[in-house]
Write the C-alpha cells for this entry.
Amino acid sequence: MGLRQDVDVIVFDTFGTVVDWRGTIIRDFSAWGKKNGFELDWADFADRWRADYDPQKGRVRRGEIPWTPLDELNRQSLIKVMTQLGLSFSEQQIHYLNGVWSRLDPWADSVEGLYRLKKDFVIGPLSNGNVAMLLRMARHSNLPWDHMFSCEIYRHYKPDPETYLGVCETMRLAPERVMMCAAHNYDLSAARKCGLKTAFILRPTEYGENQTTDLEPTEDWDVVASGITGLADALHE
Amino acid sequence: MGLRQDVDVIVFDTFGTVVDWRGTIIRDFSAWGKKNGFELDWADFADRWRADYDPQKGRVRRGEIPWTPLDELNRQSLIKVMTQLGLSFSEQQIHYLNGVWSRLDPWADSVEGLYRLKKDFVIGPLSNGNVAMLLRMARHSNLPWDHMFSCEIYRHYKPDPETYLGVCETMRLAPERVMMCAAHNYDLSAARKCGLKTAFILRPTEYGENQTTDLEPTEDWDVVASGITGLADALHE
C-alpha cells in the first residue's frame, strides 16, 4: 500500500477507539456500587453521562464558556446525572467516580497493536481527554504513547481543525504525513478535510449491543480495520 | 527521606542534564566532516554554537521576537557560526547538522536511571527543546518519557515561571508535588521560587574539561546526586 513509507505519525481517538469507556464504567461502577450500597442500572448511568458529553463540548466549541479541560466537564455532567437520578454522592465519591476516565480498559487488540505500530511510527492520542487524564490512563492500561497530543494542548475540542492541524504543526509535518485513527466517521471526516490520512477502526459495541452508529465506514478511508492489530497488519503489508 | 511519597511527577532539564550535547556534537560532526571534507575544530564550533543559545532565548523571553521553536533558533545560530568561520554548507547539510539536537547521546547513567524512576513517578523533559525535537531524541536514545512537557507547549523559555507552573497546571498538582531535576543551579532556583521540589545532578564535563560553572550546588536542593541513577537511589531510600 506504500502507507508505511508515507506516514510518520499516527494519532488516535481514544474513548471508544482504543479504550472501552462504556464497558469499563459499567464494570467499575457495579463493583464500587456493591461496596458502597448503590444499586443502580449502571449501563443507563453510563449512557446518561455520555449523553451530556457532546453538549458540554459544544458549549466550549461555540465559545459560550472558556476553555475547560475534559475532567472538569465530565465532573459537571456526573453531578447532573446524579441529581437527575436523585442520588447523593460525597465529594470523595464523585472524585473516585470521575476518575474512571483514567482507569478505562483497552479493547483486546489495542495494546498489542500499539506496540507493533510504535516500532515504525510516532504514536499518541489525539483525544479530547486532558493530558493528566490521558497520562494516568496510559500508565493504567499500558498504552505505549510517545506523547499526549491532547486537545488540551491546542485549546480546542475535536472536530475543530485546530486539533488536527495542531499535531502537524507540533511535528513540523505536512498533513499528509500524519494519520488520524478513529472508530468515528465524523472524526475522520474532519481530519481528512485538514489533509490528514485516515484509518477507521470498527468498534460495533462501543455503545452496547444495540449500537446504530459507525457500524461501517461512510467514506473511502485510507485504511479500514477491525482493530488496532488490523491497522498494524495493513500498514506493514 | 519521604520524597518518594511526596512527589508525583519529575521533570528534567534535558540538554546537559540527560544528554551530552557537547560530546555528541563533537563526535557527530567530526565523523560527518571527515566524510564531507570539512576539517575543523569541532569543539570550538560546538562552543560557538552554544554561546548564541542564551542570547537567542533572551530575544524571545524579552518579547523582541515572537515565540520561535528551538530548532529554528538553533538553525539561525548555526548559520551565524558558519558565516563567522567563513564556511559554506548547503541547505541539506545545514538540515543534517541542525538535526544533531535530536541525535544527542545520553550520559551513561541516564537511561537506567529514568527506567527506574518511571516505575514510581511520571517523568518527562521540561526542556527548551520543542516537542518534535524531544520526541525524536527520545526514540534515538531510548528515553522512556511519559510525555514531553516541552517549553513549546507553554510558549515560554526557561527560566520563565510559566514553564514550571505550566507543568503543575497540566498535571493538576500543587507545585510541591512536582520535582525539577537539572544540572544547572539557575534552573532549580527558578523552579524553587515557583514552589517545586528540586534535584541537582552534577555534570562537571558538560562544557568540557575546563568547566567553571555548576560544579557544585549553590543552594540546599532537595536532592543532590552525581547522576540520574543516584537520583533514583535517593528517592527509593
Strands of chain A lie at 9-12, 122-125, 178-182, 197-201, 223-225. The longest helix of chain A spans residues 21-36.
